[in-house]
Design a protein that fits this description.
The protein is mainly alpha-helical. It has three domains: about 25-120, Fumarase/aspartase (N-terminal domain) (Fumarase C, Chain B, domain 1), CATH 1.10.275; about 125-370 and about 425-455, Fumarase C, Chain A, domain 2, CATH 1.20.200; about 370-405, no CATH class. It is about 60% helix and about 5% strand. A two-stranded antiparallel ribbon has the order 1-2. Strands 3-4 form a two-stranded parallel ribbon. Strands 5-6 form a two-stranded antiparallel ribbon. Helix 3 crosses helix 9. The relative contact order is 0.11.
Length: about 450
């Protein structure tokens, strides 16, 4: 089959990699650029930050004059302001955000704008943008997780005396409480925050100066750009700096998938507990939807969609794994597709965390649930322990209670005496909160915030 490749000779905007008098097929350009221009709008502010740090470093090694740097700073800060105001665009015919920023600088400053790419490749430029972007978005996810944690702890304290059936194998097992239930998910979020911290630390290393993956003959000061951008440290080996692309995204999505699993399980509980068969909680009317045919329905669509969205996010690390499969060292264009996996995932998890917190804040719990005789068997272990305290060996007490249940003489002892750490009567929420505070402090967000504030 003959394929006609048409060429566009009318454009006057050269790509960063393009030589004079060379033109790429429109068909090939459309395929290779893909959704990059759309995704790159998320990177715009970080591209400017990377440019500012790189320009300041270039001035110290004599590749820019003080006047060059002053002019570049004025224009870059103006572009940054446009981005913050939502006025920045990537023009038609411009390949990506890096090209757009350099084009804007060159239009205003001429040759000075062309100098800013010295000692840099688009490879390390996009990589530093992705590191800064991922670090920033992980910060937002941590904040959202902390908000959900605080709601869960507050609900746990509010309902610590409201008992709830505990289940194993979806059969009634032992007494629980809403305090335990809310608190369990709160503590689970701490483990998710630990994984977020691991991802954050991988994102918080500077690749700038690695060039195309093999460094530069210019005497670049990579320690300076590391400090200017608030990074914890640099990727020392320039080859590994490029190889870190993909690993950073995979770590971020692994942490997101862990967080998603926690929210998914919580959403499933809400779906169960809201049903008439369980009837442990009440979702207000404005949090539910109805049926087109059954007038009695109050469907927990919010919880169901939370479950579906977060279940889907569990697969994201595998998507990254498959893109990276069998790649040798060095940069490959395959990695462009990582943006399309990572960026929407941040939006999705932030939306899910926000709606989960809103749902829990407005949820009502039912009291005195365990007064119902159908829950008598929940207290069988309490009866066993009662006999043990009176001197009956545990195994004999177990058999005796089993016999009482069998012959109908069993009477449920509803007075609970749970006092050990983490039990119904001793939730230890203060210690759980202290542990979360400790884990949050490990991020050192203030250092990053201070560095970036100084930069702009």
């Amino acid at each position: 089959m003959h394929v006609n490749l048409s060429f566009n000779h009318s454009t006057t905007i050269l790509k960063l990699w393009q030589k004079e008098n060379t033109v790429t097929s429109e068909k090939i350009e459309r395929f290779t650029v893909g959704r990059d221009r759309e995704m790159d709008l998320h990177l715009a502010e970080f591209d400017v930050l990377g440019n500012l740090a790189h320009a300041m470093m270039l001035e110290t090694i004599g590749l820019l004059t003080a006047d060059d740097l002053a002019a570049l700073r004025v224009e870059l800060i103006e572009i940054y302001a446009q981005i913050q105001q939502g006025e920045f665009i990537i023009e038609e015919g411009v390949e990506d955000v890096h090209s757009q920023v350099e084009l804007m600088l060159t239009r205003k400053l001429g040759d000075i704008g062309k100098k800013i790419h010295s000692g840099r490749s688009r490879n390390d430029q996009v990589l530093v943008d992705m590191k800064l972007y991922t670090r920033d978005r992980l910060f937002q996810v941590v904040q959202a997780a902390e908000k959900l944690f605080n709601v869960l702890i507050s609900k746990s304290e509010e309902h610590k005396n409201d008992l709830l059936p505990g289940y194993t194998h979806l059969q009634i097992a032992m007494p629980s409480s809403f305090g335990l239930w809310f608190g369990a998910y709160a503590e689970g979020l701490i483990d998710d925050v630990i994984q977020l911290n691991a991802a954050y630390r991988l994102a918080n290393r500077n690749p700038l100066g690695s060039g195309a993956g093999y460094g530069s003959s210019f005497p670049l000061n990579r320690a300076m750009t590391t400090e200017l951008l608030g990074f914890e440290g640099m990727h020392h080996n320039v080859v590994y700096a490029q190889m870190s692309r993909g690993r950073t995204e995979q770590a971020a999505l692994t942490a997101i998938s862990s967080l998603a699993a926690t929210v998914s399980r919580l959403a499933m509980d809400v779906c169960l507990y809201n049903s008439q068969n369980f009837s442990f909680i009440v979702l207000p009317d404005d949090l539910t939807t109805g049926s087109s045919i059954m007038p009695h329905k109050k469907n927990p669509d919010v919880a169901e969609l939370l479950r579906a969205k977060t279940n889907r996010m569990k697969a994201l690390p595998m998507e990254i794994t498959m893109v990276l499969s069998n790649l040798p060292s060095g940069y490959h264009r395959d990695m462009q597709l990582l943006k399309e996996i990572l960026m929407p995932a941040f939006d999705e998890i932030l939306d899910c965390l926000d709606i989960a917190a809103f749902m829990l804040e407005n949820m009502k719990v039912k009291q005195n649930l365990l007064d119902d005789p159908k829950y008598d068997l929940l207290f069988s272990v309490e009866r066993v322990n009662e006999l043990v305290i009176n001197g009956v060996p545990f195994r004999d007490a177990y058999r005796q209670v089993g016999a009482e249940i069998g012959d109908g003489s069993y009477v449920a002892p509803r007075e609970l005496k749970h006092t050990h750490e983490g039990s119904i009567g001793n939730l230890q929420n203060d210690l759980i909160k202290a542990r979360m505070t400790q884990e949050l402090a490990r991020f050192e967000f203030e250092k990053v915030e201070k560095a970036l504030k100084n930069l702009v």
